[in-house]
Amino acid sequence: MRQFIKFIVKNIPRPVLIKFSSVFGKIVSIFYTGNKVECPVCGKHYRKFLPYGVQGGDNRLCPSCLSLERHRLIWLYLKKKTGFFTDKLSVLHIAPEQPFIKRFEKMPNLEYITADLESPIAKVKMDIKDMPFEDNSFDVLLCNHVLEHIDDELKATKEIYRVLKPGAWAILQVPLDSSLERTYEDLSITDPKEREKHFGQYDHVRLYGRDYPERLQKSGLIVKADDFVNTFSKEEIERYRLDKEEKIYFCQKP
Asked: With a threshold of 0.85, does the pTM exceed it?
């Protein structure tokens, strides 16, 4: 069963997994009954999470809501360090993630808009480099694992800055290699196999390094790299299956 599940999550596109997630989760959950790990997003617990990723990394994907490490960390951050679940907020969610979208849509305190160029679950079809929104429109913007796909990163982050209200904030996560001092990018690399070799995925155009906050600041945003994950105990990090190396990039418009 383990090898079968690993094959499924490695070879079936995530949009297909999303479409059939409820059925998939119910079937798989039978084989993962237990209480060793817990998803803070959906509240379900299992003996372990599912494998996920190109390499089939073990114990990563929640069978119920399809959360990964980054989703669980963001959820906890929003709960513990922001007024996201209580304040009246206008929210733009770019490339909305399956673990979040239905939950955020049901929250009465949010005026919640989802947008993306290709996602089938986003309400507004748009290019992040040319958003169809007026200046100073949103209190919060969520955009996770998107910028590594964008050729003109600065144009995209300036658009994010533009649509945020003064004092508003954004969470902008990307896959990041902390061993790299500087971001590695080469826009001349266009072949999918070469991009996977250089940047880790066929549709990525760069591999971010520790200079990521500096790159965001070029847009005018004030950036805090919050080591939030290390406010949890080792036991909590293991139970929620968080990435202990991941920081939250909290960005604010002055």
From this structure: yes
